[in-house]
Amino acid sequence: MNITLLQTSLYWHDPVANRAALEESIFNLDQPTDLIVLPEMFTTGFTMEASAVAEHPRLATHRWMHQMAAQTNAVVTGSYVVRENGRFYNRLLWMQPDGQFATYDKRHLFRMAGEDKIYTAGIKRIVQEWRGWRICPLICYDLRFPVWSRNHPQDYDLLLYVANWPAARQRPWDTLLQARAIENLSYVAGVNRVGDDQKGHHYSGGSALIDYTGEVLFQHYQTPVIHQQILSLDNLRAFRQRFPAHRDADGFRMEL
């Protein structure tokens, strides 16, 4: 799989400008790709002013993502603010080139910013099959919760985190990405933003690709970057056969 990580700065509360900037980046990709990963709330920045920026499902951003997916023949994924049935969601959209899509609503809402007071938490994780891979996309603060991220029973090959993770907590981001890869015997990709938002938070990126042993294959800080890399499913499967730690994992049932 050729995966593309798109680390960028974001225009505050300006979906049109953000979509235009991302569209230019996508059209300038060096090579064909299978999967394009955008940051959390990529149309607005991480905002608690949901009523000012929320979109109804299947409108502008949904249509834009379908266009990007169709034109690149790749899945495009990232999260944005959605209003549905009178509630707000930090919703990840997984968009395929043929228009088929899936959604994941952020489960763990960042209470220190009051996200849990504004948005409704998701109740279901998704795993998407794409070109022979099984991929589990999650959002930002979900990274801190290993049970929700657990690859049990070995149902994914690639774990994604889209984020607006501030520089003040860069070390946990870096450390937890590696931990999630090691404990789940999975590739992990994390896509964070860079720059400053209107609330005075600085973001230093640190978007990364980690392999199933915890080795950092790529990581970049502070400036925008578009990174493309080929991941090997055969190598992952071979490692799981040589080192089947997942067979000794503790069983559990998750209660929401």
Walk me through what this model shows:
The protein is α/β, with parallel strands linked by helices and 256 residues long. The chain has one domain: Carbon-nitrogen hydrolase (Nitrilase/N-carbamoyl-D-aminoacid amidohydrolase, 4-Layer Sandwich). Helices cover 25% and strands 30% of the residues. The protein has helices at residues 15-27, 50-53, 60-72, 115-118, 146-149, 170-184, 233-242, and strands spanning 2-7, 35-37, 75-84, 87-95, 101-105, 128-130, 133-139, 158-162, 187-191, 194-196, 202-210, 216-221, 225-230. Strands 6, 7, 8, 9, 10, 11 and 12 form a 7-stranded mixed beta sheet that branches. Strands 5-4-3-2-1-13 form a 6-stranded mixed beta sheet. Strand 10 (194-196) and strand 11 form a beta hairpin. The chain is globular, with a radius of gyration of 17 Å. The model has no long low-confidence stretch (mean pLDDT 97).
